[in-house]
Each structure stands twice: as structure tokens, then as C-alpha cells.
Write a structure and sequence with these properties.
This protein is an alpha+beta fold. It is built from eight helices and five strands; from the N terminus they run αβαββββαααααα. Strands 4-3-2-1-5 form a five-stranded antiparallel β-sheet, with no helix packed on it.
Length: 233
């Protein structure tokens, strides 16, 4: 039994290394970004000619926005149900919390409810199905949580040059408007703490010395640009 629990923890840690799981509960309005893989169909003419054609897989993000009406399970088996009204009909979808196909979970609004399961919303329409927004101290604290940096000037740079940042982590950093080497080089202690908590990095920034690596990269770029300026002069 301990081996199974250890494997589940490893799978949960692998998902949390790529994206965070915000704090939310039934009654909250969330937006779930789901990865959808589309495969182009093979041309029948190529089959007749005997020319094998590889399937072209395209991944896109699909947004699903609605009210959380239930959370169930625990650990890696935990899931939540999101309900929305589409063209006048109620539509529900169950998402595993630690599914690798979920790119991001964003909480848009905190709801004030007294039940853990909101299945009663299935029989209500219009104002009767409205949920009031929470305005207590806990809701204000959650809404005031750090959400990222101000968008910097300039185009995005390749942060995978820094050891410890892979393509997936680079995508998560870009969602927080962190996509330039200069930003990483100037990270403050508060910025590092916010990133570590938001992305569940487990002190990876300090252990792998992202700031030092970024400063070294900036020094290399500056040194390579000096001869070019001298030749122009």
C-alpha cells in the first residue's frame, strides 16, 4: 500500500511541477484550459498509392468556464465537476484535478454557498441559480494572491538556456509574464518566494541558481555585442 501511495505522490508532483492547482471550492466560478489533441485524417488516395503518411497531431487549448458544483475523491483520484449553461441547456463536465491534459485552472469568482454539493442547481434557471459572491476576509486574501509580473518590454527570449527550466516550465513562466533573461537576473527574494509558492518549485530557483545563470548569460550577450558596436564606429 505504501508503494502505491508513493507512486501517486510522484505522479502528483510531476503534474504540480508543470502547473499549479489553485485553492477553490464548490460555488466558485472557474475557467479550465484543456489540451485538445487533433489528428488530421489520412488521405485515402495515399493509401491506394502505397504512400504511408504520418498523422499530423495539433494541440490546442480549449477553455471551459462554469461553476464548480462538486469536488470528490482525494489524492491523485480527486476530481471536480463544472456546470455551465450552453445555448439554454445545462452542461456538466468532470475534470481530474491532476490530469496532465489540464493546462491551467483559473478561479474567476468566489461563491458564497452552504453546501458541499450543489446538485440543486440542475433544477434551477435564471436568478434562482445565481450564487452570491464571497466578500469575507478569506476570499479577499485568496483574491489578493500574487498573480504574476507586469508585462515587460521586448520579445520573449529562450529561458531554457537556464539549467532547470524546460519547455513546459517556460510556458508556465510566460503565463506569469516572466519571459526575459534580464527579469530572471533581477529576481528579488520576494519574487523568488512568490514563484516558488505559485509554481510549487520546491526551492528550485535557489538550488539551481537561476539568478546567477541568468546574470552569466547577460554578461555573455553584452560581451558579444561590444565588438559589433566597435566595428560600426
Amino acid at each position: 500500500m505504501n508503494i502505491i501511495q508513493e507512486l501517486e505522490r510522484e505522479q502528483m508532483a510531476a503534474v504540480l511541477a508543470k502547473r499549479g492547482v489553485p485553492e477553490f471550492s464548490p460555488g466558485d466560478t472557474v475557467k479550465v484550459l484543456v489540451r485538445v489533441v487533433e489528428v488530421a485524417e489520412k488521405d485515402p488516395k495515399d493509401k491506394k498509392k502505397g504512400k504511408p503518411k504520418e498523422d499530423a497531431a495539433v494541440t490546442r487549448l480549449q477553455a471551459y468556464e462554469g461553476v464548480v458544483i462538486a469536488r470528490s475523491g482525494s489524492g491523485i483520484n480527486e476530481s471536480f465537476t463544472v456546470r455551465k449553461i450552453s445555448y439554454g441547456e445545462g452542461v456538466e463536465r468532470v475534470f481530474p484535478v491532476y490530469s496532465p491534459y489540464i493546462a491551467e485552472i483559473e478561479v474567476l469568482r468566489r461563491g458564497k454557498v452552504r453546501r458541499a454539493k450543489l446538485y440543486y442547481l440542475r433544477g434551477r434557471r435564471g436568478k434562482a441559480a445565481r450564487i452570491f459572491e464571497r466578500t469575507d476576509a478569506r476570499a479577499r486574501r485568496l483574491n489578493a494572491a500574487w498573480k504574476g509580473f507586469k508585462k515587460p518590454k521586448g520579445e520573449a527570449e529562450d529561458l531554457t538556456q537556464i539549467k532547470g527550466i524546460d519547455a513546459d516550465l517556460q510556458g508556465r513562466l510566460r503565463q506569469l509574464n516572466l519571459y526575459r533573461i534580464e527579469q530572471v537576473a533581477n529576481l528579488s527574494d520576494e519574487d523568488i518566494a512568490n514563484l516558488d509558492e505559485t509554481l510549487s518549485l520546491k526551492d528550485a530557483i535557489e538550488k539551481q541558481d537561476w539568478v546567477g545563470q541568468a546574470q552569466a548569460l547577460l554578461a555573455e550577450l553584452t560581451a558579444s555585442e561590444v565588438p559589433a558596436e566597435e566595428t560600426k564606429a
